[in-house]
Amino acid sequence: MKICVLPGDGIGPEIIAEAVRVLKALDLKLEMEEALLGGCAVDATGSPYPDATQKLALAADAVLLGAVGGPQWDNNPREQRPERGLLGIRKQLGLFANLRPAILYPELANASTLKPEVVAGLDILIVRELTGDIYFGQPRGIELRTIDGQQQRFGFNTMHYSESEIRRILRVAFEAAKKRNRKVCSVDKMNVLECTQLWRDVAIETAQDYPDVELSHMLVDNAAMQLVKNPKQFDVMVTGNMFGDILSDEASMLTGSIGMLPSASLDANNKGLYEPSHGSAPDIAGKGVANPLATILSAAMMLRYTFGNEDAALRIEGAVKKVLAQGFRTGDIYESGTKKVGTREMGDAVLAAL
Ligand code: IPM
Ligand code: MG
Predict the structure, then answer these.
(1) Which CATH class name applies to 1-96+267-354?
(2) What angle, rounded to 10 degrees, do the helices at 194-207 and 163-178 form?
(3) What is the Cα–Cα distance from 14 to 354, expressed in whole angstroms?
(4) Residue nearest atom 1 of ligand 1, based on CA coordinates
(5) What number of other Cβ atoms are within 10 A of residue 210's Cβ?
(6) Which of 26, 101, 147, 278 has the most CB atoms at less than 10 Å from its CB?
């Protein structure tokens, strides 16, 4: 079981260190090797996804990632931005299925900006297509064109999906729903975009293979609204790359604790890249205060989806629940009456609870 570990930028190295400690404590014969991705890779090699990292990632069974990005690389040319490394590894490894759970832990109900009764017990899974759509569509660019008799800059991107790309992500959503509450809500913009009319048609066709799962459809603007109005109506939401980018951030904020949310990006054979849903938080990097729980929970997802080890996954998830019940909180989820701890102490608490 080979794991490529990519600490990345910002708080990445700190939170990854805790997840690695937890994995090592499980005694599972895991081989872990570190490499560079993101801004740190640009600084060291000029590329956000260097050859050595590609080699390691391709050879590994799973990738565990911290986070990438930071203000110091914001003005780099597009090819040398940290995000480019992330998009590159997703595409190269064929990680088309992005699973982003939004779960509200009962102990953290006050962390949400929404009323407790709206979010109590929230458990949504967003299934986002990750290697297609306008993110990767050609043609794209910014060029000079003559428009209205005037030379001016013209920016363009292309949204596209083939029916096989749509079908395979819909299948992931239906399969996930079978293990949950058997409801899939497919999100599109079919009233305006042909590409997503096809999405809806293929969703309806695919649903015929899953008679025990209820399929509904929602336009993306309404979905954004329903997520804050009545989020508990959703079980599994499935959507394209760009809509999924936006809706998954919105869903994560319903819980008020993005520091708690893991994610998985899977290929067709359950090889996966696992990373916290939050970013690199440059403002608190190096201070030892970041919340490592989303990364630790991402390691649990890795054990479940790539290595098929449900017991070990449950052991980690159980330990996380226990430390919350014991009152340990990093700054992002702290409230008075709880014990404020740093990244390392939170890792210690999880290790003790294992
Ligand atoms: C995400 C991020 C990325 C995305 C960026 C960093 C390229 O926002 O994982 O949601 O847009 O996919
Ligand atoms: Mg995003």
Answers:
(1) alpha beta
(2) 50
(3) 20
(4) 245
(5) 18
(6) 278
Active-site choice (221, 283, 287, 339)? 221
In the structure, ligand 2 is a single-atom ion and the residues with CB under 5 Å from it are 245
153-185 per-position pLDDT tens digit:
999 999 999 999 999 999 999 999 999 999 999
CA of 16 to the centre of ligand 2 (A): 20
68 CA closest ligand 1 atom index: 6
Residue 109 in this model has a pLDDT that exceeds 90: no
* Residue 83 beta carbon below 6 angstroms from any ligand 1 atom: yes
3-state secondary structure 79-127: HHCHHHHHHHHHHHCCCCEEEEEEECCHHHHHHCCCCHHHHCCCEEEEE
Residue ranges covered by each domain of the chain:
1-96+267-354, 104-257
Q: How far apart are the first and last CA of the chain?
A: 21
> Same fold for the domain at 1-96+267-354 and the one at 104-257?
yes
Return the CATH number of the domain spanning residue range 104-257: 3.40.718.10
Q: Are 23 and 298 in contact (CB under 8 A)?
A: no
The pTM for the full model equals 0.94
